[in-house]
Write a structure and sequence with these properties.
Helix content: 25-40%
Strand content: 25-35%
Shape: globular
Number of strands: 6
Order of helices and strands: HEHEEHHEEE
Oligomer: single chain
Radius of gyration: 15 Å
Length: about 150
């Protein structure tokens, strides 16, 4: 429910970009600080709306393992270079392609996300270019299929 509530303000912008939004049902309960995880999702959805390629899909799914629930955000978004994979979670860091498109912010969003997820006894990671056949370029800017994963305790 929290994901849908936080996604709601971004829904129209994503639909206007031709994004098909797919949210898997999840009945699992997680143990979190509601407000801080709402901030996490807000930052992720804000980045999604900025960096997702037009006319693609945004998929949110869930896995339950042992004492954790994994929330998976998958999209065709602005390319993140391999050497930037861990740096994007550092304060004041924006990726090269984000800077090149003038879409980059001040590099605070994902660092806040990481800190808040960790304060909730969870972790966040990103997998880059997971389906190479989905690579594309829009006006010379590369996009790839990327997957952000957040694990939170049950």
């Amino acid at each position: 429910k929290l994901i849908l509530l936080v996604l709601n303000p971004f829904w129209l912008e994503l639909i206007e970009k031709g994004i098909k939004i797919n949210v898997q049902e999840c009945e699992e309960q997680i143990t979190i600080d509601y407000k801080s995880i709402a901030v996490v999702f807000t930052h992720l959805f804000e980045n999604t709306s900025k960096y997702i390629a037009r006319n693609t899909s945004f998929d949110i799914s869930f896995n339950s393992e042992d004492n954790m629930v994994e929330i998976i955000f998958e999209m065709n978004s602005l390319k993140i270079k391999k050497e930037e994979k861990d740096k994007i979670f550092n304060e004041n860091y924006s990726g090269d392609f984000a800077k090149a498109t003038t879409l980059s912010g001040n590099g605070i969003g994902l660092s806040i996300v990481k800190k808040l997820v960790e304060l909730n006894s969870g972790n966040i990671s990103v997998e880059l270019d997971i389906e190479t056949y989905k690579r594309n370029k829009i006006m010379g800017i590369p996009f790839e299929q990327n997957r952000f994963k957040i694990q939170l305790p049950k």
